[in-house]
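dude i think i finally got it to work??
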Amino acid sequence: MLGKKESGSMERSGNLNTIVGKGTFFEGTLKVESSIRIDGKVKGRIVTADSLTVGKDGEVEGEVTAKNVIIGGKVQGKVHSSGKIVLETHSLFQGELKTAKLVIEEGAIFEGVCSMGQGEASSSNMSGKSLLSAPVAKKVPLKQS
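look at this
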């Protein structure tokens, strides 16, 4: 059937009606009811009930809350996703991820910490130490470009 997408696919998100185009810089808070695409630069907070796509030329510095996140460019900060986060080839992520599902394609760069799952890990069934409670590396300030 024409236009029918596979059930559960990330592409089945709502309409894309907000685009921050290449060459655009936005600083502040963006709240969007549907999907948003970033091809320019955003510094601040992005909140969407649907999907965020950061294009290959897009840059985000700050905090993101979205259902699904696709990163093709650069993201620095915190990303919280109730669905899936995809780091595409040649993308760069520095910071903290919290998501149910994570896909890191070959060639992507991930520098930071990630927590996955719906809640805190239970240590009652585990003997010894868990990797989830391992010490986190010292945070180093990011270079400004």
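The chain has a mean pLDDT of 80.
im so relieved honestly
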